[in-house]
Specification:
With 162 residues, the chain is an alpha+beta fold. It has five helices and seven strands; from the N terminus they run H-E-E-H-H-H-E-E-E-E-E-H. The strands form three sheets. The protein has a three-stranded antiparallel sheet. A two-stranded antiparallel ribbon has the order 1-2. It has a two-stranded antiparallel ribbon with strand order 5-6.
Length: 162
Amino acid sequence: MHTPALMNRVASTASAPHTGIHGPTHRYPGFTRPAVPRQAVAAKATEAETANGAAPPVPARGFTRKDLLDYVYENSPHQISKADCSDIVDLVFEGVINAVVQGGRITIPGFGTFAARDRKERQGRNPRTGEPLTIPAKRVAAFKAGAAFSDAVESGEAAELL
């Protein structure tokens, strides 16, 4: 069990301000942490904007594959399972990748164009040593946003693209 001396020491330090080995943990007098994390405040703001018809809320961490699946599931006019939504999203991505790998272009009006581009060989520098080196030519994936997509991003308003 705890001794009275230990209990007195714990009680006396519990109310004392916390200090680290280099002094108080807060650098500025009167500094307090916000009660709500900034991400939660941003999410509340986007919920209000969504109610007004603006863009759907995007989590502070970005829009992940899971978020996309949830969006498709919740907004589909058909009664489909989440597993079917996952299969559909995977098929769309697989189709885009396969078409681009085979040298084709995928153009989705209002959204954009996916294609493969050839980068030429070019000169560069090793950032550590500064010595010049040759960066070899390679084939890269490219995406060019469509006009409606670009306009929606610029204005900050969601649009019916398709």
